[in-house]
Amino acid sequence: MRPQLLIIPGLLLFLFFNIWPIVYSIYISFTNANIRNFPPPPPWAPEELRQARQPPDYVGLSNYASIFAGPASAGFLGAVLWTLIFVALSVPAKVALGTFVGLLMSSDKVLGRSLMRALLIVPWALPLILSVVAWRYVFDPTYGVVNQWLYYLGVSKPPDWFVNKDYAYAAMVVIEAWLAYPFIMTVVIGALANVPRAAYEAAYIDGAGRWTIFSRITLPLIKRPLIYATVMTTAASLQFFLVAYLWNFIQLYDRFVLAYGFYWAFGSPFREYGLAAAVLTTSALIISVFMILAIRLTGLMRGMYES
Amino acid sequence: MKASAAQTLAAAAATLLLFYPVLQIILLSVNKLPYFRLGGDFVPTLESFQWVLQQPEFWRGLANSLVVSLSTVAMVIALALPGAYAFSRYRFRGRDPLLSFYVVFTQMAGGLGIAGLIALFAIVSALGLRNNLLALAAIYAAGAVPYHTWLLKTYIDTIPRSAEEAALIDGAGVGTLLARVVLPLMAPALAVSAILSFIGAWGELILANLFLSGENRTLILWIYSLMSNVYSVQWNRFAAAALLYAVPPVALYVVLQRFIKRGLAFVY
Fold first, then answer.
1. Peptide bond preceding A39: is omega within 30 degrees of 0, i.e. cis?
2. Count: domains in chain A
3. ipTM at complex level
4. Domain that holds residue B104
């Protein structure tokens, strides 16, 4: 028996439900698919229905022209820009938060670390929808702790974190930082777990200051894992979608590229599938280019083929 | 080194701050009032949970979620395990590129999944597979193949080949080999794989929302519908429903941690 046969079933199902849709979506992006002609009726539909519902027409690059220079360009390019701003804000936030907590949780001088670690990992263990429910309550305009504090601090009219676009966007940054810090923290703790204690003690005895110890011992140890984690979490920020979908999609759909594409296909009454496919194809291209560059530059795949 | 008060305090403050959203949703779910304020009235009661358990949508959603998630687990194992074995034990043309393709896909699955959503919607509609729980599980399993193949391959790499070689000399085929020799040694990795694919299927919302309707809606879709009517559903009931929904994945996550501590540290 040939070993390839063992791979075929899984590979085929994966190709059929994951890769084929991507290829087909790229094709749809060159058509005028919309609610009148898409999706095609099933094979057993009556003949007259199939006659009435002709397949979408090939329209060349017109959807791409529309999102890059036409009527949808303001929305699309805006979503790209806001996504990049989101990456620029959320990635430093989660890496800094995760590293800070990770360093604290690796310190011998902190009492009760195992309990704290168990609590700190919780955002990772929770289903996303529960996390969003929890944060909806934190940001609730009336009962939420954020607005209560703002009120106590003298803000007489605290903002609405759902209806106001910019405040909703700011909430997304906070929530993404909260959702992702356990990953960074775990990477930092893991990297520091195998450090010989003697290294720190020797440095301490030699009279090295805190900063010297950090920059000479700690930082070199966590640098590579941290770069890896940062690349992964940047990819996550680029693909940010679900929390915005659950928060208030109508206010946030034009701030994240994937959300923008999803909106034109399934979120709006217009259902411009062709246009949406062009948006999503372009987004997937941006994400793929980022991943390939990141893997090349950081050597992430090194050592993967050994067995 | 002795404990430092400053560092312990900083760690405790950070933990409290970061855990607060979860703590508050738990307190809210057992509060008699439909809201919970810091320093406000708190009257503990289980009424909200009783309300959830009286909702027929809860039980129907639970049953559907179990069907989808358990079917996903079965399909993921059945598809990923043979592939993982081939990747680990054999050298063949296309092995390395396919393996790196799997790993790269794993990191982009979310974005690419949404990119392919429109066509997937058309394919599933054309096949008449909308509103079919098993078809949804198959889609989930298909998307999970790359990650779980890689995960299981990494584990098989650590199993010495000697047992298999002995079985091969005795004339066993690959099927017997997998079932009798490899499978028993793989129990922990299979448990990890099963847990992760269960959690994934349990929490998936977008495809479920797109394809399932009426009686077939899964539990997460009920939570989602409560979320959209947040002004008509009392917050404490909503919190209780979301917490009950989260019990299976969180419990499985705790089990998973045991496996990770036992040296299956390749999971993250």
1. yes
2. 1
3. 0.89
4. 63-213
**What's the CATH code of the domain at B68?**
1.10.3720.10
Residues of chain B numbered 99-138 and touching chain A (CB < 8 Å): 99-100, 103-105, 107-108, 110-123, 125-128, 138
- Please report, for the domain that includes residue A267, its CATH number: 1.10.3720.10
| Global pTM value | 0.90
Is there a contact between B210 and A266 if contact means CB atoms under 8 Å apart? yes
Q: Name the one residue in this structure whose structure tokens are 């495809």.
A: B207
pLDDT per residue rounded down to tens, chain A (307 residues): 688 889 999 999 999 999 999 999 999 999 999 988 888 777 777 888 778 888 899 999 999 999 999 888 999 999 999 999 999 999 999 999 999 999 999 888 889 898 999 999 999 999 999 999 999 999 999 889 999 999 999 998 999 999 999 999 999 999 999 999 999 999 999 888 877 777 777 887 888 787 888 888 888 888 888 988 999 899 999 999 999 999 999 999 999 999 999 999 998 888 899 999 999 999 989 988 888 888 788 776 554 444 3
> Among partner residues B3, B203, B250, which is closest to A111 by beta-carbon distance?
B3
